[in-house]
Amino acid sequence: MDKTFSIVANILLQIIPTTSGEKEAFTYYRDGVICAEALQNYYEAMRLEIDPYDRSYILYNIGLIHTSNGEHTKALEYYFRALERNPFLPQAFNNMAVICHYVRLSSLYEIAEAWFDQAAEYWKQAIALTPGNYIEAHNWLKITGRFE
């Protein structure tokens, strides 16, 4: 359903005469509808799914949606919950590190270093699970003296 909606919406945007502002507004609306529907579907999947491993991926995906919506606190909560069920999700550690890094860049200096330190810890865990991935994070750890 989500894919069909996106395809039809894209076709309509191409054939209906609209201004660039209207097209941009519709794009945000379409993406919001897709995210809202996806969240509803993931919440329903959580209600039905009993396997902890499968639930971890559902929780991770909910975290992704909250991340893309800029809801960092909610995203971190869902990534933590996913890792409680499956501690071998390097992508969850990576996303948590990215959030911490982002928050650090937009924080006051007093609390900023703590966010960078937390980002470093998450990236170390992601790299430990999948050596060779997250090369930019690995380089950042070396440059900032946080790689041991």
Automatic annotation (TrEMBL):
Keywords attached to this entry: Chloroplast, Plastid, Repeat, TPR repeat
Plastid keyword on record: yes
Name of a matching Pfam family: TPR_1
UniProt xrefs under InterPro entries: TPR_rpt, Ycf3/AcsC/BcsC/TPR_MFPF
Source organism of this protein record: Clerodendranthus spicatus
Protein name as catalogued: Photosystem I assembly protein Ycf3
Keyword field contains Manganese: no
Coiled-coil stretches noted in the UniProt entry, renumbered to this chain: none
Swiss-Prot/TrEMBL TPR repeat ranges: 56-89
